[in-house]
Amino acid sequence: MPQLYPRYQYFEKHLSLSKEAAEMLHERYYKDYGLAVSGLIKHHEVDPLEFNREVDDALPLDGLITPNAKLRRLLCDIDTAKVKLWLFTNAHVTHGLRVVRLLGIDDLFEGITFCDYGRRPFICKPHLEAYCKAETESGASSIENCYFVDDSNLNCRGAQSRGWTTVHLLEPGTSDTVDRIAKNQIRDLEELRDLFPQFFKKETNDYDEQSMASQL
To answer: Is pTM, for the whole model, over 0.70?
Structure first.
């Protein structure tokens, strides 16, 4: 398996830092700005498109990320007459679309709000402007109709502050006692079926109930 190019290696190379210093600065910028590259732009005048080319777009993801049939089935079971599926990522568009293509789910979303590395000001989650941008681009009718799932506590905090219904997807190894920002916490995306049954196709819910009854 090819070794991934960790982001802190970019810090080592371009800022002439030790591995330890690079990792610490990367984490600091991520916590301060929501995206490490934001700190590079603000303090070191780094070209974010260059960063994207050397880091995200350079990752050897083919073969590492493969089609996810379970995730596709979950998304296909959502009633798109009630829900508009929309991607919202801090990645540049090339990386964001590449990942969902490799997962085999790129055709299931109506659009994407991404962090445009080629524009200023640099807008990303968890900053308010990013959520407003997503609302506009997705055509959200109201804040109350925005539902957000993310594995970042920082991003969930921003969405919750905006008034969105927020679900924090806990990463493996994360304690249940983690600072609870979102009203909802899950460990598996399948739990969305129980959290929001009103958004899934009725025949899917009926099938699940029948399957469960047959096992009792």
So the answer is: yes
